[in-house]
Automatic annotation (TrEMBL):
One of its GO terms (molecular function) is transmembrane transporter activity. Its main location: membrane. This is Major facilitator superfamily cyanate symporter. Residues 394-413 are annotated as: Disordered.
């Protein structure tokens, strides 16, 4: 396989895989009430469905680096897309609530693996084009988030909720196909790693780079997932209709495309992109103040500001590659950042609701989100400094990382 054809196939595989990484989340939410009525589960179970994505992203985010070391990044990507496809099909065909939950968990597991494995694949094959490929990857994730959210209800009205849920499995199947030849080629061309060459992943928590990037990602994800869950309720409490609240969620989601296009290039071009993090934090704070004190005075403005605040999300994903010297380092940093980050993020919607119920207002909940933004700033201060993970994650690890990279590089010829 020629270099050009090899890289083109990897490009297609990464681009289509990125589309899959949120399909199971946003294709379900708009149909949750209809599915609940059909299957007869409680609102508590609806809450379980809501928490399941971040929990599975966390669990499999932490497990993926070890899987990647054992079977290789390409085979890991194939496992991710296959699990997502099987989960999406099974969820659509499952006859009762427990099996729907089980197959949904399988789909989210595949997507959780994909979340972590794609950044080091970008690092391995496109280290000379990180800005472009990070943009392709992150834009793909955003498109895969937005399109199902808007298409779910029309598809369900035309063909039923099972077809609406199951149709997205086609994307996952298509995404799996290019990984088959890539995985086979990688297994044929990989150079065996000597027994004395210790693998370096699993040590990202030792490095201030790893801890800082995880903190930045966790704060951003917590705020974002909480906003997704609670924007409609905030506007409903202010007197707006359910349709208006839904439209604001759609606007909040769509603004992710703006940051997806801009953030990777900004991170690559700026030696220290922390000023961008500070601006994002300011946008969040102004948006929270507007939503708290005058939600209907300028609702579109508040949501635009809040929707641009999570530009620190694509920044975090881009920094995973920029702050690692090797694709092994990127895999370790990706797993730690997203695994622990999603654990933290999964608590956001719940704690926001608990604080609202306990106080009867929105001051405490938005104070909680402001504290999360402070974490973004603190983490961003450390993550944006121009330094490398492998230089600070343990004595001698930088040397072993360089040896591992040269020993395990996959030929693209």
């Amino acid at each position: 396989m020629s270099v050009v054809r090899g890289r083109l196939l990897v490009f297609v595989a990464i681009a289509v895989s990125a589309l899959v990484l949120r399909l199971a989340v946003t294709s379900f939410s708009p149909l949750a009430a209809e599915i609940r009525d059909d299957l007869g589960f409680s609102t508590t179970v609806t809450g379980v469905f809501g928490m399941l994505p971040t929990v599975m992203f966390a669990v499999f985010g932490l497990a993926t680096p070890a899987l990647g070391r054992r079977i290789g990044l390409e085979y890991t990507a194939l496992v991710a897309m296959t699990a997502a496809a099987l989960g999406l099909v099974g969820r659509a065909l499952a006859p009762e609530t427990a099996s729907v939950l089980g197959f949904a968990a399988l789909a989210f597991a595949g997507m959780g693996i994909g979340n972590v494995v794609v950044p080091p694949l970008v690092k391995r094959y496109f280290s000379h084009r990180l800005a472009v490929m990070s943009t392709v990857y992150i834009v793909g994730v955003q498109i895969g988030t937005i399109v199902p959210a808007f298409a779910a209800v029309p598809l369900a009205e035309a063909a039923g909720w099972r077809v609406s849920l199951g149709l997205w499995a086609v994307v996952a199947i298509v995404a799996a196909l290019p990984w088959i030849p890539l995985a086979l080629r990688a297994s044929r061309t990989a150079v065996p790693v000597p027994q004395h060459a210790e693998r370096t992943s699993g040590r990202a928590w030792r490095s201030p780079v790893g801890r800082s990037l995880m903190t930045m990602f966790a704060g951003t994800a917590l705020v974002s997932y909480t906003m997704f869950a609670w924007i409609p309720e905030v506007f409903a409490d202010a007197g707006a209709s359910a349709a208006f609240g839904g439209a604001m969620v759609g606007l909040f989601s769509a603004l992710g495309l703006v940051s997806a296009f801009a953030a990777p290039s900004v991170c690559v071009r700026l030696r220290n992109p922390f000023p961008v993090v500070a601006v994002c934090a300011a946008l969040f704070v102004v948006a929270f103040a507007g939503l708290l004190f005058a939600p209907m005075a300028a609702p579109v403005l508040w949501i635009v500001l809040a929707g641009l605040g999570p530009s620190t999300f694509p920044m975090s994903l881009t920094l995973i590659n920029l702050r690692a010297r090797t694709h092994d380092g990127a895999a370790a940093l990706s797993g730690f950042t997203q695994g622990v980050g999603y654990v933290v993020a999964s608590t956001g919607p719940l704690l926001f609701g608990v604080l609202h119920d306990a106080t009867g207002g929105w001051i405490a909940p938005f104070g909680f989100l402001t504290a999360a933004v402070a974490l973004v700033v603190i983490g961003g201060w450390g993550a944006c400094k121009p330094r490398m993970l492998e230089d600070s994650w343990g004595t001698g690890d930088a040397d072993r990382a360089s040896h591992t990279e040269s020993a395990s590089t996959v030929s693209t010829k």
